[in-house]
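Thread: quick sanity check before group meeting

JM: Hey all, I'm pulling together slides for Thursday and realized we never actually wrote out the predicted structure for the chain we discussed last week. Dropping the sequence here so it's in one place. If anyone has concerns about the input, flag it before I start.
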Amino acid sequence: MKTRNHLLSALLAAALQIAVPAFAQDAPKAETLRPEIVKLVQEAQELVKAKQFPEALAKLKSADAIADRTPFENFTIERTRGPAASGAGDADLTADAFKKVIDSGRLPPAEQLQLTEGVAANFYNQKKYPQTIVWAQRFLASGGSSDNINLILLQSQFLSDDFASVTTALKAQVAADEKAGRPTTELRLQMLAESSRKQNDMAGYGVALEKLTQAYPKPTYWAPLLDRIQRQPGFSDRYTLDVLRLQRATGTLTTAADYTLMAELALQANLPAEASSVLEQGFAASLLGTGAQAAKHTKLRTQARNQAAADQKVLTESEAPAQKAASGTALVNIGTNYLGQKDYPRSISLIEQGIAKGGLKHPEEAKLHLGMALQLSGDKAKAASVLKSVQGRDGGADLARLWTYLP
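JM (edit): ok, ran it. Output follows.
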């Protein structure tokens, strides 16, 4: 975005390119300036250079008082008035002056576009969004191309509550960016998401939010996205622990209630090592062990520690019987236990064996956990392949897709 100083410099440079042929003997009479106007315009230009904008405007007002001005004299006065008005912070006068300059037809097309762009940016700097929209659209309709103007047009429409226009433009922008293989800027995706939400288009909001999270995976975007996943029709409660796992991986597990719920669900799933790990993290972050629930937190940590210690003694011994079982369920369960312990190679091996053996009651969940282990181990290519294969409408496929967004 151009600053006001940059804008003023551009307008001033354009205005000071005025040819003043007052003493050219062979110039057409209609294209000459009378000496009294030359004097006032030149004095005004010097005052603009010195940033004495009110004084420059006063000089030009004196020029306005001269009777019987020719079209060229008016053109010259207005072209000087534009940057003087801009420097004085008078966006309306700036626009009026340069509109007259542009409409005179005396400027080459490139200079007309430059001034049109400057007026649009000047209105934007003054927070006059309806006028910004008019001049930005005029610039674009005249064949201008500027990312800066496109952006201030979108922002002005957004700030004028014209969310429909913003959404239409940004959907086209995103489609073009995806086709070209280039990222859409974070600001544009933010506007697309919020414009969709403002129109109560929650499906569009979800799509935009997911694109935003995929391109710019920040906790700010992860939190509402994960919240939406759990509210989707058909979401299975069996994936609640997996949602919390993804919250933990994305830095959005932020409250004592989150930590205790994850620990309790892990204990219910016979994953005490994972429960113990998440509780220790909560205590280290000073979210647990304080306040009215401190005793409860401490009791839960002791329970998780004791169960994890006991579980570890029999975990290895459970592998041989699991290998001999008719189904792969036991292997997958043991592998998921190692996932919670962050022993990813062991987790990957056992879950893969369990899936290959078959007979699983929840095969999509097993693939999700395998993909998670691969992602967290750093094998992102294989993880992406496994996670993309997760099917169903109970939340598993949605979670699998989101795991691929992790950096």
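AS: nice. The radius of gyration is 33 Å. Residues 294-315 form the longest helix (22 residues).
JM: adding both to the slides.
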